[in-house]
């Protein structure tokens, strides 16, 4: 039990979880919990890099927790907590920021993307966001970080920071590895399939929310942007097929069948039929999660209890790393 490898990951409660978050990350977490010591958090500190409505963050933090559990993450076997409940994240982030170069942060695609979308609010937090993310991971000496493809660059910089720190002070941090799911690491927007599906998209038709009513899910998938060729074929490098590629990927991730088999099944059939089947498969996948979610979200006391126990465990583990770091850099440790 004790020598199980450690997994850390999390989602920002900056919107309702999407099916992209589920396929890219949470579905994988559920499978990993059997073999690893897993720590999954609601990353609320990260959300304020973009302006938010405070009450929304609070509400969504518990919604995300309820969804983790509803998706199948066992709160008795794993540590589930709210990032801001453990001050060690902000503390280690400060230290690591002093070992991170402006140049490397400037290269982050998420920073470039978010600063162009929020040109009125390019704040220092948005810039140093990957440092806080590195702290999240390194505090727990995580071996693996299961995420979607868009987060891999942040894991790379986390590794660079950890290696740089270790090169100066000895083996303080475990060097973590990113872990992608077999299918679904990069689910695209239903309205612009060249972009990722994002919970903060201004057009709700672009994403499937985990709490969307089944009728809404069906409508969104039926109106997904495809192409005029009308042939169900997976052509990765062909941008005109991005929409259909995305639907095939979703079907593959949900049914655990490979894309070739799916394409073979639909040879000669039209997009209408295919979309109907994708919609049905997605709805059937989400339905039991929603039923469980509805029960959990009604029991706030239970959810608060889960994350309060989780925070205690998270603090205990992370204090060991933080103390070591403080000692190494020269702070007086009590
Ligand atoms: P966030 O909240 O944007 O996304 C949560 C997880 O969902 C994955 N994901 C996707 N996967 C496939 N297709 C998509 N369209 C898609 N959209 C999102 C993300 O890759 C992620 O795994 N910075 C992180 C949160 C974070 C974190 C951490 C993660 C903060 N500290 C430490 C891991 C470890 C983020 O904004 O994820």
Polypeptide structure, described:
- The chain is mainly alpha-helical and 334 residues long.
- It is built from 13 helices and 5 strands.
- It has helices at residues 19-32, 44-47, 54-71, 88-97, 102-106, 109-117, 124-139, 152-169, 214-222, 242-255, 259-265, 271-297, 300-329; strands at residues 6-11, 37-42, 79-82, 144-146, 177-179.
- Strands 1-2-3 form a 3-stranded parallel β-sheet.
- α3 crosses α12, α4 runs parallel beside α13 and α7 packs across α8 (152-169).
- The longest helix is centred in the C-terminal third of the chain and has 30 residues, at 300-329.
- The radius of gyration is 21 Å and the shape is globular.
- The mean pLDDT is 96.
Question: How would you summarize the topology of this molecule?
Answer:
Layout lengths: L5 E6 L7 H14 L4 E6 L1 H4 L6 H18 L7 E4 L5 H10 L4 H5 L2 H9 L6 H16 L4 E3 L5 H18 L7 E3 L34 H9 L19 H14 L3 H7 L5 H27 L2 H30 L5
Parallel strand pairs: 1-2, 2-3, 4-5
The chain binds tryptophanyl-5'AMP.
List keywords for this structure.
334 residues, mainly alpha, 54% helix, globular, binds tryptophanyl-5'AMP
Number of distinct helices: 13
In percent terms, what proportion of residues is strand?
Answer: 5-15%
Low-confidence stretches: none
In sequence order, what are the helices and strands, one letter per element?
Answer: EHEHHEHHHHEHEHHHHH
Distance between the termini: 31 Å
Strand line-up in the sheet with most strands: 1-2-3
How would you describe the shape? globular
SS-derived structural category: mainly alpha
Mean pLDDT: 96
What is the radius of gyration?
A: 21 Å
Give the names of the bound compounds.
tryptophanyl-5'AMP
Biggest pleated-sheet summary: 3 strands, parallel
